[in-house]
Design a protein that fits this description.
The protein is of the alpha+beta class and about 400 residues long. The N terminus is likely disordered.
Length: about 400
């Protein structure tokens, strides 16, 4: 037998019968605890068998199962239908009895007869409604065509995507999805459940390692809103997994971000090496992006402009640094020169190196240059530090000079 439609199709004419069966089943289970009292009072209509007989007299085929999947009683042709389609509804039935997940499936019994199976939780029980359908309505045929069209469009998408119904059955997927996970398209066309796919991928060693796989799988299945997370696979690849949720089901998209993450890691290491190199310099060095925000600054620059580490990590705009300097030290023209260099359209328009005095009286040689990647580097040489450094060198030379002189 072949599954010919997904849970997207509405129960249709079975709705009223299903509701009636659900109400009667609920009444039946509610009255089970009172069976002994009914026997003592001799009221036949309160006995559980009365409700079983009442359900059996209806035209709706109904099966009631407990949490272990064992049949409590069957009405109408439910036993025949259950035997005929148990293999097809097995995963959905397990989700119903285990987690209380409802489902609506349509099974092809033969070339002309179809069977709609609806599963609903009632208390701790599971109730199955079987509705034979010998001919599809025009609306169902049209809907099936639309589903087939959308499925064909999704199949051709260049990205790996999978679409699941509300009962977590796969109804559409792209060829890139099958290729990503090494799954045969013929197997996916059988519309397996999402948990089946996750179990197969885990057995094949293709999913991220988990300390508690069962809990991780439940979290994946019970997503209620759109989520995004990164999976690091045993193969070394990294996937950004985005789940788009809606009332009709969910669409899961898998983007390979291995190269992007590798470049980000390489760029981060490169910046660390750059900063370590710049930290060895005795002058302040800052690199600003085309948007004016600080890309990198060495420790001398942070000390010169009294910028704590948390501010440096926020990559402040040069105007923010200028405002802080003006508030703490006073207004000067140093950051106006930096702004001219950052916003200059061409390297030739960048101001030449010049000595500028800060509001606190310290003098800086400010040198601006445009780097090949479009960023602007600003060097701040503090003349006071330079003078102190030269004085120390002179003092060292004076101390060592007598030992270098030859005796007369």
């Amino acid at each position: 037998m072949k599954l010919v439609a997904s849970a997207m199709l509405a129960p249709g004419t079975a709705l009223l019968a299903g509701l009636l069966g659900c109400v009667l089943a609920a009444i039946f289970f509610a009255l089970i605890p009172s069976r002994r009292a009914a026997r003592r009072e001799g009221t036949a209509t309160d006995h559980a068998h009365f409700w079983q007989m009442l359900l059996r007299k209806g035209s709706q085929a109904i099966a009631v199962l407990d949490g272990a999947g064992t049949c409590l009683f069957l009405c109408g042709r439910a036993e025949q239908y259950l035997d005929a389609c148990r293999a097809e509804i097995g995963p959905a039935l397990a989700n119903l009895t285990g987690d209380g997940v409802s489902f609506d499936l349509k099974i092809a019994l033969n070339a002309t007869e179809h069977l709609r199976v609806t599963g609903r939780p009632v208390g701790r029980r599971a109730v199955l409604y079987f509705t034979p359908q010998t001919q599809d309505s025009a609306a169902e045929i049209q809907l099936r065509r639309e589903v087939a069209t959308r499925s064909a469009l999704i199949r051709k998408l260049p990205v790996a995507v999978a679409a699941f119904t509300t009962d977590r059955r796969l109804w559409a997927f792209s060829s890139a999805y099958a290729e990503l996970w090494g799954l045969a398209e013929a197997e996916l066309e059988r519309q397996p459940f999402e948990d089946e796919i996750l179990d197969r991928l885990r057995e094949a060693g293709r999913l991220p390692e988990q300390a508690d796989f069962a809990m991780w799988k439940r979290r994946q299945l019970r997503q209620t809103i759109g989520t995004r997370e990164t999976w690091h696979l045993p193969s070394g690849r990294s996937l950004r997994v985005t789940q788009h949720m809606s009332a009709e089901g969910k669409l899961v998209q898998y983007d390979d971000v291995s190269r992007q993450l590798a470049l980000e890691t390489e760029n981060s290491l490169h910046k660390q090496v750059q900063k370590a190199t710049l930290d060895t310099l005795d002058e302040g060095v800052a690199i600003f992006g085309a948007d004016g925000r600080l890309v990198l600054g060495n420790s001398c620059f942070a000390t010169q402009w009294q910028l704590p580490e948390n501010v440096m990590l926020r990559h402040p705009h040069y105007s923010e640094i200028a405002a802080g300097s003006s508030a703490s030290l006073g207004t000067d023209g140093i950051w106006d020169a930096v702004a001219q260099g950052v916003i200059a359209a061409e390297a030739a328009s960048i101001p030449a190196p010049r000595v500028l005095q800060r509001a606190d009286g310290r003098s800086f040689l400010v040198t601006l240059s445009r780097l090949p990647n479009g960023t602007t580097m600003a060097n701040f040489l503090d003349f006071d530090d330079l003078e102190r450094f030269e004085a120390m060198l002179a003092e060292d030379r004076a101390l060592t000079w007598p030992s270098n002189r030859k005796p007369a």
